[in-house]
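Exercise 4. Each item below gives a protein and its sequence. For each, produce the structure-token representation.

Item: Integrase (Devosia oryzisoli).
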Amino acid sequence: MAYDLKRILSEAKDHLAKPKKANTLERYGRIWKSINQSGLRITEYVDYVGCTAPGQFVLTRSAAIHALWKLIIQKFHSAHRKMTAGLKQASTDELTEVVGVRMVIDMLRDKKPPKDAFTRKGRSKRGNIGKLPEDWQQRLADNTITAALPAVLVSLLSGCRPEELAMGVTVSVVDDRHLSIFINGAKTNETNGQPWRKLTYDVGLSPLAGRLWRIASRKGGVLHVKREPRTLHANMATASKKAGLPPICAYVARHFLASQLKHFWSDAKDAIAMVLGHASTATQKRYGSRQQGRKGGMAIVEVEAARTVRTPDRPHPGVSTANSLQTEHFEEDAFGALLELSPFR
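Answer:
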């Protein structure tokens, strides 16, 4: 696998920008101190984590990965300082070490937990789809409070992430039969995710789309929908309880839409990726199943997105497919991205 320096830096910033509780960071710090005091080389950290007690494996691995991302940022800064001081070879050595640290992170991620490892077993959103009745979407909408209805309809129709609704989604009446939903993407960086996508619906194919079309029409043809994730989650939980349904959240809607797309658009993986806000067809494997998508119909008739979708036969433009590490242009590739580092702890 080839490692691109800009991508590594972007990944490090994305990881460290994710909010974590103070007590979690404190525990990470204690574990990392213990790992450092072991006197092991970084490449030996994988075995160290593998030898921890089953009950501590997941926490220890997470702490090590978090600290290694911080180490990557530190090494980028160190390389920049050395380059500024005219120490080109020392700077290149630091960046070579960055790639080594990134490889260790991958090795830690691939390390399987021992049999009795403690993990938090969350509810499977994909598994919940099979328990839902045929008319669950209509029942959920019917029991949603008026203030939350546009956001819930957008979630059901587009499968957008709660974070995307928090940024604001634009619903537009196209004509007397069509509706569009414009979404600014979350989970994006220089190569991953769709910065924006636009979905167009035939309102005659979906009562939910028709309902949203009527709401937007009453607002002059353009409706700006915005809802905070916690508020949306509470709204959907209350509505599902009133409707006599299992607990439903935005990610259940997302998995259900992915299932429908796989059922109706089985040969159009590029289009499925665009609808879900992905820049690669590989990511959709985690969402839904073709069999679960047999319920209901498909009202999406067109999708546009910012980026061409990567496929196994069409890797993302600009991403090296070489197996060797090229050091000649390290400085140009990496240092420009250091200008606006995200704050991290």
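Check: The longest strand covers residues 178-184.
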